[in-house]
Amino acid sequence: MAATIRLTQGIEASIRNGHPWVFADALKLAPGLKDGEVVELQDRGGAFVARGTVEPRSPLAFRAWTTDPREAVDDALLRKRLAAAIALRRELLRPDVTGWRACHGENDQVPGLQCDLYGDVASLRTDGAMGVAWEERFVAAVAEQLAPRAIVVRNPHQADGEARVVRGRVDGEVEIAEHGRRFLVDVRHGQKTGFFLDQRENRDRVATIARGRRVLNLFSYTGGFSVAAAQGGATRVTTIDLAAPAVDAARRHFTLNGLDPAAHEFLAADAFDVLADLAAAPPRHDLIVLDPPSFAHAKKMVPRAVKAYEKLNELALRALPPGGWLATASCSSHVRESDFLAIVATAAARVGRAVTIAAIAGAAPDHPARPGFPEGRYLKFVLLRVA
To answer: Are the C-beta atoms of 131 and 210 separated by less than 8 Å?
Structure first.
């Protein structure tokens, strides 16, 4: 019989409405619980609320798997949920997409597991001590459902956070395709699971408006937006990232896609410094892409993150000519869409520029979200035309 834990705050309605997380300050935990142990969550009166996994020493102490008292949290449920997630992607994605997210954690009702499939290599990112405790079960389920030739696992909360090849063999980079673009993914040393699949459809949006324009892609990583813009007909694309190896990878991606790197510009530099210089000079670009890393990994970091986002967008708007375009994004889950739109509005007001929102988007469809879990809608992408 599973151990029981109790809520100390009246948040059971939120859990029943789909929010999968309960933090330690809202719980009374039984002694002796182990990371990843399946427990039953009760309300303050002792009534069943949910069943899930516990992480007793973490601020995020409980993750709900089910609110059905008849449903067991076990390997069978894990396989069922993962199979359903994969089936959903097969319905949503075009057949020419060979890099896609097979499992999006809590949003697919598989707490603690993100699984991206790059060709025939599965790259897993598990979360917290719960992810470590469930690693063998996650790996076994992925192997059964996807049959990849290799499986790579990383857990950023572990001491080194390095990716480990736990099944098969990975030699070098893995090539993927998306909507006519080709990329090389380093599943062992790349950021996240190796690539930012969540911006796939937003790369399409940038490609659509890039024709005949000079494009600046900041925080470029390995140049996903840059390739999209160049394929879309941009006259010149400037690709900038602080990491020189990422910029080198972007240059190789141009070659891989039949684009001449010599016709474009690649630079390892700080985006804030570059934008500050551009904002003080006559406009050199017609379209700027801002896709920075998360500035708010925790709620307490939000005020500082807001200032950083405001500064970035203000500088970008100063650097654009009338009729220019800004594609700006935030992947900080603690900064909600309404907050990000307010940030953009503040930046526009400070520089005295009128802007028109042409599109508001989120993550690609293989990164679904669930009602009642706003943190799952982490990515915000806004396309603006500047007057």
So the answer is: no
